[in-house]
Predict the structure.
Amino acid sequence: MLINRRLTLTTACLLVGLALAGCGKQESAAPAAGSAPPPPAAARVLVVGTDAAYKPFESQNEKGEVVGFDIDVVKAVAQKAGFEVKFVNTPWEGIFNALAQGDRDLLVSAITITEERRQTMDFSQPYFEARQLIAVKNDSKVAKFEDIKPLTIGVQNGTTGDEVVGKLLGKSSTAIKRFESTPLALKELEAGGVEAVVADNGVVEHYLANNAGGGFKTVSDAGFSAEQYGIAVKKGNTELLAKIDKGLADIKADGTYAKIYASHFGAGPK
Ligand code: ARG
């Protein structure tokens, strides 16, 4: 019946010709007979975007499932706040666009809350504190951030690591090698293609701990300011943001957050 109607409309459109604007519109606007009303927003499974190449915050396991600290936090928040989520691996490069366009309802991706990003998206309360950390070869003389100035430096494109290195060397410096993921930058350090990498401490530390043969060490610098990770929603989505913030507060209050933290980082949160 529906098919017949569509066919009839399509035929009519074809017969009358494309010059008659509005046919296509009418067709799609016609309600499908007997179809159920759209589910209320709360019943919809929310799509969470994450760049799952960021252990231990987000990665894909052998089964292809997205796992990690961030994932556990959002799952716990969703459970408390009463919404359902599914995680979709989303390359960092397009992740903010995907949110702005509504392809993702929220993002969890070890995203640092910055004033610049606040212009185009909204953030939850902070859920994790991080800092930049420098990785260099074991025999490197680098002792502080300034010391990497004459070196070629690997960063993940568009991250806060990219930003701090850009400030030190100048954004357009050819000594900055931008990679699509942080592990790729670290692999390049191992291979000798770059002489230093600047990235979030948690990820650099995790990589080192699991690649003992890589032959590199970390250098911290007190000049790096503390960064706060937040969960991002589309600008103006205050309803979802309120739910997320409430869920975060709840999992911090009842010990769930501390448990998740301990299961990924060993010790309790500071
Ligand atoms: N915290 C850094 C930033 O927000 C890096 C985050 C990268 N996250 C990821 N899953 N690749 O810029």
